[in-house]
Design a protein that fits this description.
alpha/beta, seven-stranded mixed beta sheet, 7 strands
């Protein structure tokens, strides 16, 4: 997740090149977020952007979290992938639109719900099948520590042009040529 999170920040900066400050929405109760935050901090330093770490433990925290990003003059926000973000993606997308904040999500579903863009594994069905194979091996006696770590082999950049237009964001032609799927 850490490499992917850093890549999401890099893509967000490419889409919004004038961004000097980017908020990072994260959930302190999600175990994978601690290493992801370090990866984002490292990437932010390389990209020359200031990061505003914005914790949100529940969906009720989203409104205040995004309001604080605006009051602290964030130019965009990155939502770290988690079950909470996925479950309340429509609410987050709605808030991003309200505050006219460019947003990067870890799930395509958030873009379909109105978020600006996502960068994620292209074929979740394939990942689910692979997980089933791992479960089968473990149930047959394989030790999880002995199984190799696998990652998705293809990732997709999904952009919601309707959202871009609604928030007044114009993306370069070169950037738009990179997308794998456009929602209009």
């Amino acid at each position: 997740m850490t490499d992917l999170t850093a890549k999401e920040l890099e893509i967000l900066k490419e889409a919004v090149p004038q961004a000097k400050r980017i908020a990072v929405l994260w959930n302190p109760t999600t175990p994978s977020h601690a290493p992801a935050i370090q990866a984002v901090k490292d990437a932010g330093e390389k990209l020359g952007v200031a990061l505003q770490m914005v914790p949100a433990r529940t969906a009720e925290d989203f409104a205040g979290a995004l309001a604080s990003t605006v009051s602290e003059r964030a130019d965009a926000f990155l939502a770290l992938g988690s079950p909470l973000i996925l479950s309340y993606r429509a609410r987050l997308a709605e808030l991003a639109l309200k505050y006219r904040l460019p947003s990067m999500f870890a799930q395509r579903e958030a873009v379909e719900a109105g978020g600006l863009m996502s960068y994620a594994a292209d074929d979740l069905n394939d990942l689910t099948r692979r997980a089933a194979v791992y479960i089968d091996k473990i149930l047959k006696g394989a030790k999880p520590a002995d199984l190799p770590v696998e990652q998705a082999s293809k990732y997709a950049l999904v952009i919601n042009l309707k959202t871009a237009k609604a928030i007044g964001l114009t993306m370069s032609e070169a950037f738009l040529l990179r997308d794998d799927k456009v929602i209009e």
